Amino acid sequence: MIIEKNRTDVTERIKNLREKVLSTKPSVCTERARFYTQVYSENEDQPVIIKRALSLEKTLQEMTIFIDEGELIIGNQSSQHRAAPIFPEYAVDWLPEEMDDLDKRPGDAFYITESHKKELIEIAQWWKGKVLWDRGRALMSQELRDLQDSAIIKATGNLTSGDAHIAVDFYKILSVGLNGYLDEIDRYHRKVKRYNQEGVKKDQFYTALSISIKAYQNFIQRYSKLARSLAEEEQNPQRAQEFLLMAENCTVIAQKPPRDFYQALQLVYFVQLVLQIESNGHSVSLGRLDQYLFPFYQQDIITGKISEEFASEILENTWIKLLSVNKIRPWSHTRFSAGGPLYQNVTIGGQTTDGKDAVNALSFLILHSVGKMKLTQPNLSVRFHKNINPEFMLECTRVIEKGFGMPSFNNDEIVIPGLLELGVEKEDAYSYSAIGCIEIAVPGKWGYRCTGMSFLNLMRVFLASLHNGLDKQSGKVFNKGIGSFSDFNSYEDLFKAWQHQIKYYTQKTVEIDTAVDTALEEQVPDILCSAFVENCIPRGKTIKEGGSKYDFISGLQVGIANLGNSLAAIKKLVFEDHRISKEQLLEALETDFDGEDGEKIRQLLLNFAPKYGNDDDYVDLLLKEAYMEYINEIDNYHTTRHNRGPIGCKYYAGTSSISANVPSGAVVPATPDGRKAFTPVAEGSSPSSGTDLLGPTAVFKSVSKLPTGKIMGGVLLNQKLSPKTIEKDADKLKLVSIIHTFFEELKGWHVQYNIVSRETLLAAKKDPEKYRDLVVRIAGYSAFFTTLSPDTQDDIIARTEHSLNF
Amino acid sequence: MIFNVQRYSTHDGEGIRTLIFYKGCPLNCHWCSNPESQSFDYSLMYDRKLCKNFGDCLKVNGTAITQTEHNGIQIQRESLSNIENFREVCISKAMTLSGEKKSVDELLIEIEKDRPFYRENGGVTLSGGEPLSQGDELVALLKRLKMKKIGVNMETSLHVKWNRVARCIGYVDAFLVDLKHLDSRKFRTYTNGDVKLVMDNLVRLTNSEANVVIRIPVIPDFNHTEKEISNMIDFILTLKKVKEVHLLPYHTFGVEKYKMLDMDYKMSNRKQVEDRELAPYIQYAKSKGIEIKIGG
Predict the structure, then answer these.
(1) Do A697 and B16 touch (CB under 8 A)?
(2) Minimal Cα distance from A745: which residue of B?
(3) Residue A638 maps to a domain
(4) What pLDDT sits at residue A777?
(5) CA nearest to B251 within chain A
(6) For residue B222, what is the domain's CATH number?
(7) Across the interface, do B9 and A805 touch by the CB < 8 Å criterion?
(8) Does A741 contact B at CB distance below 8 Å?
(9) One domain for residues B159 and B19
(10) Cα end-to-end span (Å), chain B
(11) How many structural domains comprise chain A?
(12) In a mutagenesis test of the A interface, which of B4, B8, B12 is the best target, namely the one with the most A β-carbons within 10 Å?
């Protein structure tokens, strides 16, 4: 299906562009911050939505633009490659505080000049007390702020960086063009009655929309002009032709629907770009690229307008451009998403709305172009289903073998039924895509944050259940318990205490989310993003006000495996085998397993109790039962959009917690699974490091015992395989075979593979210069290994490697 | 008695397989990578790296187990008795007891766990040690597996009396037979076995209805020469119905286990055999029309 050389060959142009972006040190760009501050300060009388439209307008009009040598896909987020813009309206306090240490961060360092520092200090001064963070905190009760400060519930990222986690309606953008949006906005705007409050708000919304779309068109036109002027100066006639073609492409797509594949891809990239200038959230995703671009691709191939080689080249250029987009986060948030990627997801494969295999020639081309680039962006997801093209699956394993953690797999066989059960229409359910790393939503129809609201630290909750509600780490009793562990006479007593605590903390996560969402709605409404999501324009509402067709969100529960293992260890060793007394356990936890006695207890806990990940019902079912307490409780709550338009407005569970397992573990004392204090907890739904001893099939079995159909925020499973494991085609087919079983029969939700050797990782940790392009998958996405903090590096190294038998 | 049930085995027969390792072998090949498989009795293994000096093993048998000067213990293996008393004694799992008596039902529970992964061509592979040295419970398991329609392969040295082989034909979908050498003296020196027994059995097996795959371990100083391997290939050519030949290059993954068993590793200081060293053998076999590959 694909020309062999297109699997491997990379043009000089792409090699140079790739090298350039990789070797560019991340920096900070102050332009956006400057323009937003100016407009906000000059328009204090205006409603926030107009301020934001005008700010975007000024930024898109005045920000530095450039076309770099050799580029075929153009558009920059800031004044330089990999320079992160600043979003002062979200949070600023951290900037002056962390400014001098940005270039010293153990992972994700940023370079910043002294003059930029000075400018940002002034900017921060103006915003003091006016930003999203302040508002969000103000909307929380003291109890909620204490809970956040205690780190049992974390929602910092949402307040410092906004939410995103969304893919917009690319089908519509490509079919009606930007003028089409202006027409539609105008149609609705003219109908607005201004004699009631709703009308006044709609009027503002449509005015803001219109300003923003026009600003966006103007931005694309600036590139057209720039390309044209570069063409005039260009000596090389071939490059001059390229400039002219890009200029022409931009002129068309600034207004009309794209006419060919090249224009369509350029427009998709511009959408992606401008959404990340407007808003600070990450996981802005491209949805099912191989589906909505396929008609353009097919038509151009048939008419001979484009070659497969050139199509691949502009895709590769797009991936490099996605990596050039950058984001700077406060350190508190950075630790939760190590490696600094933006999780711009591209989803390929899956099924058409009538249930047929959707893999096409473009799916192969995207897969291979991503495989050739070996970059952390985009985050490539493949939608698996039982009738997926077998040749395509084999090709996926060939890309997996390259060792940069892609593609990851989502499973139609569980996700689609899960969506249908939530009330999603059939056609929409079949159109879902991955968002960010592994979570899912229906592009263009879903609100923000299909996952990634507040993070709940399950092990802190669990420890509070042992101490009558006392959280020893903060010294506070947030929720008085029903007794202490020393009074418990049976496992059932322990479980009741867990029920009592988890119910409370679950409700508190919703209270925090509600404060955060209210603040986001009031302080930082996204206008362009709302334009591109179904029903916002007809309803005259932003997404946060209830503009989207569907609205389902999830928080993230961190420490899944530790919870199961702790329950099993206590049940077995304390209440059944009586090998450890209650007092001994409490003492050992209190002292972090100090001394020989403590170490003995720890070894017993580690070695003599069943561990999640080994297909042992004993622990797997205890975990399920305990997690169901959360899942049932969260089902009682609604989002802030309830009764305001969207279908759903509900929560579901989620475990796609990225690298949050490291900082989450850093605030958890010793736990009864034998985990030492302040070390990482388990990531996502994967087993705890080094505890899955029976290989990948047993892990699959354990994971599939979780109620995967109810964890629609993602059941993250990261599997590490040594490169030898899939060296030969026969081995690759065996890998495909177990994936089929996991997904078709066991109804697994997600899996991704980290193919890397321990030796390589150790060497990379020691000598980062030599391994600059070494990519690893940490829970659901890719990052450059050398940019990770030493803690995260150690955690990755420690994870069990499944090697084949000797 | 078994010493391991290993799931997701991909190099011991087709598809995804669960390997049952039986304990006890009539041979003791110098290159054996599972030394704990040789004894028909329990084996006590001690991994010094994991030892935390808790001293619980000393309480079980203070005569046979003594503390050494530099952290760790010494086992006087000749003074050991009732070694099953050591099971689960060591909390840090530095000392483990290899060997478990499992009933057919217990084994079937383990085997069933990965059944969804067996799909069309996977299943169970019985290995060892020497599975054919096992008693009637082996046949009982084979019958049950047949009833359950779970595919069975068996890895064997064929170094047993023919009737032990014959009782299994009909229940085993493929025999993966080790062919180590043709020369009786060399075979005896390196395996302590009788090559004639193996060759006679192999001829009889290939004359039966059984499917046979021949596996040649390629071992330095033993058979790793063109002459020795081509002799074996020529012998294979005289056999009926050999499906394919696998070359298994020598590796050193088992060396650590000899230390843990206080056993002498007679092949120390040899490097593992790289795949590329096998190229001439593959070429020769292919020139003779034999289907051959590296690994299982």
Answers:
(1) yes
(2) B116
(3) yes
(4) 39
(5) A806
(6) 3.20.20.70
(7) yes
(8) yes
(9) yes
(10) 25
(11) 1
(12) B8
Percent of chain A scored above 90 by pLDDT? 82
Query: Residue holding tokens 């299906």?
Result: A1
What per-residue confidence (pLDDT) applies to A76? Answer: 97
| Number of domains, chain B | 2
- The answer to whether the beta carbons of residues B281 and B294 sit under 8 Å apart is no
What pLDDT does A755 receive? 74
Asked whether the predicted pLDDT for residue A741 surpasses 50, the reply is yes
The A residues from 677 to 736 touching B (CB cutoff 8 Å) are 694-698, 700-701, 728, 731, 734
C-beta of residue A644 within 8 angstroms of C-beta of residue A540? no
CA B107-B126-B290 angle, 5° bins: 155
Give residue for tokens 């959360």. A630
With CA atoms as reference, the chain A residue closest to B34 would be A806
Query: Are A746 and B116 within 8 A, CB to CB?
Result: yes
In terms of average pLDDT, the best of A328-332, A663-667, A802-806, B270-274 is A663-667
Q: Is residue A343 part of a domain?
A: no
A102 interfaces chain B, CB cutoff of 8 Å: no
Which residues pair with residue A381 across a beta bridge?
A: A347, A408
CA nearest to B50 within chain A: A603
Tell me, what's the ipTM?
0.96
Q: Which chain A residue has its CA at the smallest distance from B12's CA?
A: A805
Write the residue in A604, A694, A741 that is nearest to B91 by C-beta.
A604
Higher model confidence: residue A336 or residue B268? B268
Which residues make Cβ contacts (< 8 Å) with residue A348, sequence separation at least 6? A288, A289, A290, A359, A362, A363, A366, A367, A380, A381, A382, A383, A407
What span, in angstroms and rounded, lies between the C-alpha atoms of A398 and A371? 9
Residue where a domain terminates, one of B52, B74, B98: B98
Report if residue A646 sits inside a domain.
yes
pLDDT at A336 (0 to 100): 67
Q: What is the mean pLDDT of residues B35-39?
A: 94
Q: What is the mean pLDDT of residues A596-611?
A: 95
Query: What percent of chain A has pLDDT above 70?
Result: 93
Which residues span the domain enclosing A493? 455-798
- pTM for the full model? 0.94
CB-based contact A285:A166 (threshold 8 Å) = yes
Chain B interface, Cβ < 8 Å to A: 6-12, 15-16, 19, 33, 52, 54, 88, 91-93, 113-114, 116-117, 119, 122, 251, 253-254, 295
Report pLDDT digits (tens) over B151-210. 999 999 999 999 999 999 999 999 999 999 999 999 999 999 999 999 999 999 999 999
Question: Same domain, yes or no, for B128 and B256?
Answer: yes
Among A116-130, A145-159, A768-782, B176-190, name the one with the lowest average pLDDT. Answer: A768-782
Domain membership of residue A771 (yes or no) is: yes
Map residue A482 onto helix, strand or coil. Answer: coil
* Of the listed ranges A49-63, A100-114, A247-261, the one predicted with least confidence: A100-114
CATH no. for residue B60? Answer: 3.30.70
A71 in helix, strand or coil?
coil
Domain that holds residue B258: 2-39+100-294
Query: Quick one: B93 and B107 in the same domain?
Result: no
